[in-house]
Amino acid sequence: MMAKPTTVVEDRTDLESRPAEHGAKHPAAGTATWLDERVGLGKIGKFGLRKVFPDHWSFLLGEIALYTFIICLLTGVFLTIWFKPSMAETFYDGSYQLMRGIPISEAYSSTLAISFDIRGGLLIRQIHHWSALLFVASVTVHMLRVFFTGAFRKPREINWLIGMGLFTFALLAGFSGYSLPDDLLSGTGLRFADGLIRSIPIIGTWAEFFVFAGEFPGDLIISRLYMAHILLIPGLLLALISAHLALVVYHKHTQYPGAGRTDNNVVGYPLFPVYAAKAGGFFFIVFGTMVLFGGLFQINPVWLYGPYDPAKVTAGSQPDWYMGWLEGAVRIFPNWESHIGGTTWTWAVFLPGVGLMGILMTGLALWPFIESWLTGDKREHHILDRPRNAPTRTALGVAGMVWYGFFWIGGANDIIATRFELSLNAITVFLRVAVILGPIIAFIITRRLCLSLQRSDRERALHGSATGEIVRSADGGYDEDHVPISDGEQHALTQHAQPKVLEADDGSGPTGVPGPTKVSKFRATLSRWYLGSQILKPSADDIDEANHHEAQHGVEDAEARRELD
Amino acid sequence: MNTESKRKRKAQARPWVLVMALLVVGLAYSVVVPPSSSAETEMTQQIEEGKAIFDVSCSSCHGLNGEGLSAGPSLIGVGAASVDFQMGTGRMPAARGEAQIPAGEVVYSQEQIDAVSAYVASFGPGPAIPESSQYDPEGLNADEIARGGALFRANCSACHGIVGGGGAMPEGKHAPALGDTEDVHIYEAVRTGPQQMPTFSKDVLEDDDVRQIIGFLNTADEAPRYGGLGMGNHGPVSEGFWIFLLGIGGLSAIAAWIAKKGAGAR
After folding, report:
1. I need a labelling partner for A273 at 20 to 30 A (CA). Which of A100, A317, B47, B252 fits?
2. What confidence category does residue A80 fall into, taking pLDDT thresholds of 50, 70 and 90?
3. Average per-residue pLDDT for chain A
4. CB-based burial of residue A140 (10 Å sphere; 0-12 exposed, 13-18 middle, 19+ buried)?
5. Domain span at residue A509?
6. CATH code of A82's domain
């Protein structure tokens, strides 16, 4: 407000108290002030709204996970209004004619009711299921992004572990959800889980009795899963998501290398208004995409599967995608079983089913610590790795994906057999070899590709960008002109640190003074394997020399031309 | 001479006597025995036609008398229903030996198929081609059709998949999809157990049960696809495929657009 000129007060009314003038103020200002005075909104806002985030499409993968989780919560609330988590038997009398008069459970009956007799029920059910699939998918892809860019390094190891927890609970949320409708397919999935539980040596049978309250399927499992699915797991997910995001704010977001970006800053735009608009808009795009999926594409048509009956398994029974690799592993594993002192050890189920999940989860959880042990790197990192600059990590990641992928294919072996007219047995034999050889080949190829990319980066940093113009010199030689690349790109190509291989060190320095760290021979060997093959990035001197050389070239070229004239 | 000429005359008359005798016997027979029906003549004719086709198209694998060779099984006692199924769905005559002979183009007319069926049925007793009252689901009520679904899930879906979409079997064999199969052929397959399929006798599945199963399959096939496009109809496998391709792929493309759009720090 403009300052008013002082006036001589003649009129007494001017001195009387009156409400402050709010003419030009924002209508929300009153509320904001009210809140500020009570919960310190201003401080929170100043901190939160000015928070800077970097821009990259791959940073939005985690957002997809967050948004699909929210969609699942919203649609899930709708579904709980109608779903009856009971295995009590009833006779179906709803509007789906092909199930008329068939004895089915309350759970299945209410799922059919949601699908056929409740307005919008089928749409919401399908949005819920598609979002659940996308939730786990985006969690996985987000995790891959974090892995390949090294975003799990110090100080983010704990957030990586929280992420592992989120991944685990995402799987459990999905599994407990698609087991609820009590149709034939979901029951078959539960039967699979029952098999995994029973395959645990010695305690398997008792563990099964504990989970199912007696022998499979019992009559309690649906209500137990329901509790886990709508209360326990979402609660844990919410808590972990809060911690996950809080740590993202605390650590600040990582950024890709580029001009002006260091480990001590974040280059980007503030949350408000740029990211509020971008992230808010993206939420609605994700929601809209899921509504389109739910409206256009059929998912889990439970009415076709019929009620669960332990005596029936149909051809083409598969779990949702995230359990597919375990299903595949069990399908292709040799039928090993041993009997020791009256106990049965079902390796054919225990090793692929329980063992593989254990290997994947343990391996991923320990990786940040293993890597820092291999590199001896204890520094903080806020600039992301370009995957090529960590060739062994990238190669390991791709090998893991190939390994997972072949098991995954195994889970769909019958579909592949019928679709591509192949023999099931041939697929099994192929996959048994491929799950072992495939990752090794993938590792070698990926590491070589990374090193080649490093070489090409080095070339580009030293000699600039090829123009595509071929110049013929006076003596008939051909040469391609190069133009120097921008300083920003030069920085991005050369900013990364290249950690040195750890040398074996018994802890005593050359002068008898104890060294900083003890490095065993074993650790040194592994470190050489992990860091040994790197293409040396050009130093500042190298680049100067190269520039000088180029300049020399230019002078020579000019002289040559002059001679021609 | 007299006696000689007499003898000569007698010798000349002998064939005529024979002819007369045959005529009398023949006429007497035709009087005693009822005249042969035209249907029977047709039957014989049909079997002969069937034999002609069989000798050309089937005997190289199944043997000249349907006794079976190394390339094809014996057809003695398989019955007319089996031939009607195999030829009516184009599985036979097979072009070559395979893990499993697939359904194909029907190369013979129904008349010719009936002829071969009749011929093969003459090898030994077996299931006959059913009357339409045995397989036609016409007149079933909703409860019975729903019961057909329960029977299908209990007896058939382990191989043919949910609602008969088909399924894989070991060594390149498969249980075919049932969507395009004629009612009569489903009945015949149930009764004769072609290729990998087990035979379901009338003690296991009564004719009414089979009718209900056929009724269920037809109704399910005609039912609208609630919930939208099937996207390949391979359950969670196609669902997983599309959520990665369209879900992750599509949203990543949009994410790339959002990250590039407007005020961005690059």
Report:
1. B252
2. very high
3. 89
4. buried
5. 463-564
6. 1.20.810.10
**CA distance from start to end of chain B:** 141
Taking the C-alpha atoms of residue A211 and residue A190, their distance in angstroms, rounded to an integer, is 11
Q: Which residues of B touch A414 (CB under 8 A)?
A: 167-168
- Is residue A21 scored above 80 in pLDDT? no
> Are B246 and A134 within 8 A, CB to CB?
no
Secondary structure letter of residue A338 according to DSSP: E
Closest partner residue to B160 (CB to CB) among A269, A315, A415 is A315
Residue ranges of B 91-130 with Cβ closer than 8 A to chain A: 99
Query: To the nearest 5 percent, what fractions of chain B are helix, strand and coil?
Result: 60, 0, 40
The Cα–Cα gap between A258 and A424 comes to 50
d(CA B128, CA B84): 9
Asked if residue B260 has pLDDT above 70, the reply is yes
Q: Delineate the domains of chain B, giving CATH numbers in brackets.
A: 39-126 (1.10.760.10), 130-227 (1.10.760.10)
Asked whether residue A210 is domain-assigned, the answer is no
CA-closest candidate to residue A240, choices A147, A148, A135, A170? A170
What is the mean pLDDT of the segment spanning A140-156?
A: 96
What pLDDT is attached to residue A45? 83
Residue A20 lies in a domain: no
A453 found inside a domain: no
Q: Is A22 exposed, middle or buried (0-12, 13-18, 19+ CB in 10 A)?
A: exposed
* Same domain? A323 vs A467: no
In a domain, A418, yes or no: no
Contact list, A305 vs chain B (CB under 8 Å): 162
Residue among A404, A383, A400 nearest A392 (CA): A400
Contacts of B250 in chain A (CB under 8 A): 289
Q: What is the pLDDT of residue B108?
A: 92
Q: Do the Cβ atoms of B208 and B134 come closer than 8 Å?
A: no
Q: Chain A contact for B235, CB < 8 A?
A: yes
Confidence (pLDDT) at A11: 52
Q: Which two tokens stand for residue A457?
A: 């980066």
Which of 204-223 (B) contact A at CB < 8 A? 216, 219-220, 223
Question: How far apart (Å, rounded) are the C-alpha atoms in residues A174 and B56?
Answer: 60
Q: In which residue are the tokens 């563990």 written?
A: A207
Note whether A100 and A246 are same-domain residues. yes
For chain B, count helices (H), then strands (E): 12, 2
User: Which pair of tokens denotes residue A119?
Assistant: 């307005």
User: Which of B107, B113, B204 lies closest to B156, judged by CA?
Assistant: B204
Instruction: Say which DSSP state A26 is in.
Output: -
What is the average pLDDT across A539-545? 84
Record the tokens describing residue A74, joined without a space: 């919203």
Strand extents, DSSP E, A197-242? none
CB atoms within 10 A of CB B139: 9
Mean pLDDT of A474-501: 88
Evaluate whether A461 touches B137 at the Cβ level (below 8 Å).
no
Residue written as token pair 């054919």: A348
Model confidence band, residue A509 (pLDDT cutoffs 50, 70, 90): low
Q: Does B52 touch chain A (CB under 8 A)?
A: no
Residue A57 CB neighbours (<10 A) = 17
Q: Inspect the interface and report whether the beta carbons of A316 and B247 lie closer than 8 Å.
A: no
Question: A15-19, A444-448, A509-513, B45-49: which has the minimum mean pLDDT?
Answer: A15-19
A301-356 per-position pLDDT tens digit = 999 999 999 988 898 899 999 999 999 999 999 999 999 888 889 999 999 998 99
pLDDT for B29 equals 76
Q: State whether residue A474 is helix, strand or coil.
A: coil
Residue A285 · residue A121 · CB < 8 Å? no
Residue after which a domain boundary falls, among A327, A362, A393: A327
Last residue of a domain, one of A327, A345, A376: A327
State the total domains in chain A: 2
Residue A184 to residue B143, Cβ atoms within 8 A: no
